Amino acid sequence: MSGSYKIDNSLIPNHIAIIMDGNGRWAKSKGMPRVLGHREGVKTVREITETCAELGVKYLTLFAFSTENWNRPEYEVNALMTLIVNTIDNELKNLMKNNIKLEAIGDISALPSKSYNSLIKGIEDTKDNDRMTLVLALNYSGRWDIVNAANMLAHDHAENRLDEKDFKMYLSTAKYPDPELIIRTSGELRISNFLLWEAAYSEFYFTDIKWPDFKKESLYEAIYDYQHRERRFGKTSEQVNK
Predict the structure, then answer these.
(1) In a domain, 236, yes or no
(2) pTM of the model
(3) Which residues are identified as catalytic?
């Protein structure tokens, strides 16, 4: 039993991906600066990460900063970059204690040097942890990843015909399984350029709860909902239930 939801421990998603939305609106609704909403959201990141590890999730991907987020006001972007540094530095001890590996996808080379260096240090320090992998999508875009993969593939295999498996090996997510469950908070009903290739057969869960208020019980509810869906992958119900 997990909270008020009876989760089947044999059906825990191997990979959960989350579009963490609503930090700014959460803060605005309370009369606070948007930046404080992002800081509050970090507390949720910690709680959801630890809960996923406890449940046996092997991969958790969090959409932390998209390529489109550079278009936000400069002060907010700068605050987010500083928050990335502080969060990784502050959470490193906790990641080690919980045996969680930190990795990243996206064009991280374009991050400010302090953010980049802090991220690389976190990745290096946790590389031997094996309980769960926490993947931060930073300066990430699904379209960017597909175009980048296509360019590398064209360079390496100009003379050969390739299939989906070949193409996937060039994506930044190549070593991760596709997410079974993608969660988006704050009531928006779109994918926002996140894991476009990988989401082909993901189950989506949308909630009106804003990210700072998305706590352990909210995650249990999302997983419970996922476990009560029939995943057919193009087959009929009769074929799946044989």
Answers:
(1) no
(2) 0.93
(3) 21, 69
